[in-house]
Design brief:
By secondary structure, this protein is an alpha+beta fold. About 30% of the residues lie in helices and about 20% in strands.
Length: about 200
């Protein structure tokens, strides 16, 4: 099932939610082609929304990252992401939303900037939200100033390590270049407390 077909079914089954998604998509789809100055402007706007909970900031070799702006308890909702584009192929900022591997979405800020870790403190609610993307939650207590990181294998079935080059998380037990649910399902199930994509739950 392609990403376009998924959104058409979403439109049919939840028309009010689809209208909301469309309005947010129309105002944010240009995110994917922003110039550097515009990216910083979008980050500034996102940080206004996240103030007191999270902030986007430089993350060294990883580029941008998301950091806790307070001490955040486990299982706290951080934000609801919005799908701004859909594609049948993966790129560096897309997230897989269905099992055939051809359904990917790019999300708005801050979701498109969350970095991967093989020892994540963030996961996604196990169903898509009304905006065609995911809701992000802490899955561990997070200290003020700590980076908020997500295991990309919580949504990506196949290995995405080669696309990313190498994992930069640096944690003990790092998966290296085998980042994906297929290769690491047992670890992801154990560590994520069920906060991973719905389409992977029964695999």
């Amino acid at each position: 099932m392609t990403s376009t077909l998924i959104l058409r079914r979403f439109q049919h089954n939840k028309p009010a939610a689809f209208r909301n998604l469309y309005l947010r998509y129309s105002s944010s789809s240009a995110i994917c082609s922003l110039a550097d100055g515009d990216i910083e402007h979008e980050i500034q706007k996102a940080n206004e929304r996240g103030k007191g909970l999270w902030q986007i900031a430089q993350a060294g070799e990883k580029g941008w990252g998301i950091y806790a702006d307070a001490d955040i308890p486990a299982f706290t909702k951080l934000y609801s992401a919005t799908a701004v584009t859909t594609s049948e192929t993966r790129d560096a900022h897309s997230v897989q939303i269905a099992f055939d591997g051809k359904c990917h979405v790019q999300m708005d800020y801050p979701a498109r900037l969350i970095n991967h870790s093989c020892d994540a403190n963030v996961g996604i609610l196990n169903r898509m939200n009304v905006f065609g993307a995911f809701d992000y939650y802490t899955i561990a207590d997070v200290a003020h100033g700590e980076e908020l990181v997500w295991d990309y294998g919580g949504a990506e079935f196949d290995d995405v390590g080669m696309t990313m080059g190498r994992c930069l998380c640096g944690v003990k037990g790092c998966q290296g270049k085998t980042i994906g649910f297929k290769a690491n399902s047992e670890v992801i199930r154990e560590k994520s407390h069920g906060y991973y994509a719905e389409y992977l739950q029964d695999w």
